[in-house]
Specification:
The complex is a heterodimer of chains A (224) and B (224). Chain A is an all-alpha fold and 224 residues long. Chain A has 9 helices and no strands. The chains are: A mainly alpha (224), B alpha/beta (224).
């Protein structure tokens, strides 16, 4: 049989580039996410003022802002394909696993972009104490991978269901809560000078488990 | 129904065989049992009333839909191609195929070529657009194209990888006289090398074919 192109890496890369180009052209999620993050942080800073002595509140607020700013877009990665009727094009172009990995990488890039704007703004407006940068960035990175993996998996599963909005909330709650709890706990520890090992390991293990579950599930996602 | 339609197989040629192939969408009949065998090269038309299963048959042949009864087998150069891998060997143009409206026609095809791991994605996209007479509109965003141009783009997508199997569902839809002449030329170009299956009820299209499979389902997705 003559060989035909089958590189999964090429497909994942092509999908990531396509997602970035589409997002850049439409600003479907970026503008809304940044608007939410900036508005929330500004409003909270006016209402509450400096919170440099409240690392527990700072940690929770940081992850709540990141979660709510990004979640709508993260969960719509597949819904956009279904509602735009482009899922057939995608399925005829790449394997389900390549599609899902491309979407996951895009969600991660999206989340990191939101964080690049939101985190400096957060540290400034909330007058947060200087973070321990190594621990801070490690937690931010691990939390972002777990969050992106969870949102991509749930988004893929619910994309072809009828009541996807309600279903997303119901399905994602038990998956996202452990991520948020570990991320908030770890962030608080790094601000008070405590160890972050347990939370970091939990986030890493959770991210790996979600990725493994995704790789098993994705090939069966769109079987009619 | 049952039919055996066979032409002499060329080297590296494809065959497609349906054995008691049938499908239901819930309680509705999508395709009544059908058996036939086709071998490349050649053009076959699939005709039948609305809802008799023409599109369902092509969807199964493309690997997008798993039939819930019977068996379909695609072979290329004597080796069986699993349904999940058929996208690499089958060019499929269907009315349900939509493109990313925020990307240009050329960008859409280049993305597909990249995702499939083709060697020169941009030049493959340009060549496919030229074959359907869209080279001058390649830089235009898909959202700006007319219905007829989008149909030409579907045909370009199907031809992109010069596949050994070409599945065309109502290929003349939205095409003007010049477009239909282009379609007839394209089919003439590939009829000596490729297994072509056209689902249509348009006499101008099924007359292009050398043979015809008539589905005699009850039509309109009759309840079981």
């Amino acid at each position: 049989m003559p060989s035909r192109g089958s590189s999964s890496a090429a497909a994942v890369w092509a999908i990531l580039r396509k997602e970035c180009r589409s997002e850049w052209r439409t600003r479907y999620g970026l503008n809304a996410a940044l608007l939410f993050a900036i508005t929330t942080l500004t409003a909270v800073s006016f209402a509450v003022g400096r919170m440099s002595d409240r690392p527990d509140l700072l940690s929770a607020l940081l992850w709540i802002v990141l979660l709510f700013a990004s979640l709508a877009s993260l969960s719509h990665a597949f819904v956009r394909e279904v509602e735009g009727h482009t899922l057939t094009l995608l399925r005829l172009s790449a394997s389900p696993t390549s599609i899902a990995l491309g979407k996951l990488l895009f969600n991660l890039v999206f989340l990191l972009t939101i964080e690049a704007v939101t985190v400096p703004l957060f540290l400034t407006l909330m007058a947060a104490p200087p973070p321990r940068w190594g621990a801070f960035l490690a937690l931010l990175g691990l939390g972002s991978v777990a969050l992106a993996a969870a949102a991509t998996l749930v988004g893929a599963v619910i994309s072809q269901t009828r009541g996807r909005g309600a279903l997303f909330a119901g399905v994602s709650l038990p998956i996202l809560l452990p991520v948020l709890a570990a991320a908030v706990g770890g962030m608080r520890s790094q601000w008070v000078g405590g160890p972050i090992g347990a939370e970091a390991r939990l986030l890493a293990a959770y991210a790996v488990a979600l990725l493994a579950a995704s790789l098993v599930l994705y090939d069966h996602l769109w079987e009619d | 129904m049952s039919a055996v339609l066979e032409a002499p197989a060329a080297a590296d040629a494809a065959t497609f065989e349906a054995q008691e192939l049938a499908h239901r969408y819930g309680r509705r009949i999508g395709l009544e049992p059908v058996s036939f065998r086709l071998a490349a090269p050649g053009v076959t038309a699939v005709t039948g009333p609305n809802g008799s299963g023409k599109s369902t048959l092509l969807r199964i042949a493309s690997g997008l839909l798993r039939a819930n009864r019977g068996q379909s087998t695609l072979t290329v150069s004597g080796k069986t191609v699993a349904p999940a891998e058929r996208r690499r060997w089958v060019g499929y143009a269907t009315p349900e195929l939509a493109f990313y409206e925020e990307l240009s026609a050329a960008e859409n095809l280049t993305f597909v070529a990249e995702a499939r791991g083709m060697a020169s994605p941009a030049s493959a996209a340009r060549e496919a657009l030229a074959r359907v007479g869209l080279e001058a509109r390649g830089a235009d965003r898909v959202g700006e194209l007319s219905s007829g141009m989008k149909q030409r783009l579907r045909l370009a997508f199907a031809l992109l990888d010069r596949p050994p199997v070409l599945l065309l569902d109502e290929p003349g839809g939205h095409l003007d006289d010049e477009g239909r002449a282009m379609l007839a030329r394209l089919i003439d170009e590939v009829r000596r090398t490729t297994l072509v299956l056209i689902a249509t009820n348009d006499e101008r299209e099924w007359r292009i074919a050398e043979q015809r499979i008539e589905l005699r389902g009850r039509g309109l997705g009759h309840p079981a």
